[in-house]
Amino acid sequence: MNQMYTTALGGLLVLSPLSMAMAAEKSVFQLPKINVVANLVEQKNANTLAAVTVIDREEIERKQFNSLQDLLRTIPSITYVSSGSLGQTAGVSIRGTNSNALLVLVDGQKVGSATLGQIAFEHLPIAQIERVEVVRGPRSSLYGSEAIGGVVKIYTRKGLTDGVKPFASFTYGSHETYEANAGVNIRQDNSWATLSAAGLKTQGINASTLKEPQDLDKDGYENASVSFRAGHQFNDSLEVAVNALHVDGEYEFDNQDDWGSPYTDTVNVHAKIQQNVYGTSVKFKANDQWTTELKIGRSEDKIDSFDAYPSSFETIRESASWLNTFVLHPNHTMVTGADYQIDKIKSSNTYVENERNNVGYFAQYLGNVGKVELQGALRFDDNEQFGDKTTGSATLGYRFNDTLLAYTTYGTAFRAPTFNDLYYPSSGNPALAPETSKNIEIGVKGQHKYVNWELSAFENKVDNLIAWAPNAAGNYVPSNINEARIRGAELVLGQNYDNVSWNLNYTYQDPENRSKGAEGQQIAYRPKQILNASVDYAIEQWTLGGSVHAEDQRKTGNVANPELHGFALFDTRVSYKVTPEFEVQAKLANVFDAEHNTNNGYNQDGRTAWVTLRYAMK
Predict the structure, then answer these.
(1) Could you tell me which residues are beta bridge partners of residue 560?
(2) Residue range 432-451: average pLDDT?
(3) What is the Cα gyration radius of the chain?
């Protein structure tokens, strides 16, 4: 066993006495029990025939996450590659797939850049998030493009209790970091609304590992955001809701060369970003058998970079969807839907094409016959650029009893080429085909008084991966040349007792490159082993907690520095409720000041400390 995991397991032994409490009838900690992300209908996590994780606002505040990346990396099979600290570019990988093979929705709207093909997680403020649902494994048969590795569904703030309930928080931390959040939840009769504003400013760290005289500057970050959600239920059948999120940010960064490594930075180059999400929905329950929902929305993603080569890129995405749920029988449900999406880009560069649309139609069956559970989904996409694409999935489950469920599933998925892949000036390739995948998975879920557990294993074969290669004229352009096979297994354990909440997950994955000339090589920036563990212990007004996050070494693909070593990070935290409404929190992250690089040539935070004052009217 390597040193990283020996250290991590030692930390678990320190934490483990907290998790040995006996179970009681009611816990002060509440785990989320319901998800929508897996099958577009509400299901208990324990009954879902897929690997699902849900993290709600209570857990976000209890574990004192500083960013969305901090939250996501506690989920099985998720890792990220970061070019520095808060606000710096970060790519998120799930089950060993590329960061552009993860579909992200904010309040039901697809978000991210249509030129890069991925979302800037680093700019979505954790203060604005109410709930995160993640399903691991392909979901293109329901969602369409990009859902090869999984789907992340993010919900902005929403109050759940009656009355007018203001809330506020203020955090001060290392590197002169300040964060403030204030808002109000309103729920009266059949109407509800939540308004939240947040701001963050940090001096940051020197993102580059280059030393004097090349690079000494710190790379700071600022972020300001506002979110709003509201709705009204007119009667038992009709409900209308609206949502909006606006984010402005500015970050300093260290330039990269053509291979992604930082080089001499004589001045602080910077970029300004803006993200907007707007939407409205109408939900109508015609009767006990049929519920229909119509959504329309718009998302915007803009970045202006001010460096040696100033540039501007903006994505405008407009969408509409129609979802129908038919309860044919208490044990048989059909879900059907159609969606339309148009992507538009504006840029300082001149693209051959700057707009494309996609229409999708899908149907899904969910049912059971005795102890046997069946699911099947089929989706047809008609894309203006590459034509038609059909994806599907089939799942078979068997419920041994009320506490033990096994399942096996097979699914196909795809990712459409980005505007950069297709139309970037002088290097785009409009002949590109979508990346495709075939995934098989088996899983078992069990529930016990002392532990809830899940075990799953998967194999995902990805073809037509887009990479740079010479064309007939000898010019390098994006081409469908690469292949990958990713095998892995996940173990998830956890439970809530009277005053103890604990969870542990371990992932082993073998992300193997199957491309010509690179057969058998480990895909860059994909650690083979990932471990997360967390314990929280409540006694009277106090809550004490600790977490461990450990990763195996990762390859870089860089000849000069081919491998980044593994690491184990330990966090401790404490909260004290001065009154039921006012709480003081403190967190020490990376207690042992472990060096951990997730991206070649870039630093990550060492030991940091944070203090938070939090108020929420009950």
Answers:
(1) none
(2) 95
(3) 24
Say whether pLDDT at 213 is over 70. Answer: no
Segments forming the whole domain that contains residue 522: 3-601
Which H/E stretch holds residue 191?
strand 191-205
State how far the alpha carbon of 259 is from the alpha carbons of 63, 322, 479, 514, 560, in Å: 36, 43, 18, 21, 11
Question: Across the strands, what pairs with 299?
Answer: 277, 317
Position 212 scores a pLDDT of 56
Contact 273, 613 (CB under 8 A): no
Tokens 């809701």, residue located: 241
Q: Which domain CATH number covers 468?
A: 2.40.170.20
Cβ-proximal residues to 94 (8 Å cutoff; 6+ apart), any chain:
77, 78, 101, 102, 134, 136, 149, 150
Question: What distances in angstroms separate CA 293 from CA 235, 241, 411, 486, one per listed residue?
Answer: 15, 11, 26, 36
User: What's the whole-number mean pLDDT along residues 351-370?
Assistant: 96
Residue 168 burial (CB < 10 Å; 0-12/13-18/19+)?
A: middle
**Residue 611 within any structural domain of the chain:** no
Which whole-number Å values give the CA distances from 484 to 12, 77, 132, 369, 466, in the listed order?
Answer: 34, 17, 28, 37, 11
pLDDT 10s digits, 545-603:
999 999 999 998 877 788 999 999 999 999 999 999 999 999 999 999 999 989 988 88
In a domain, 612, yes or no: no
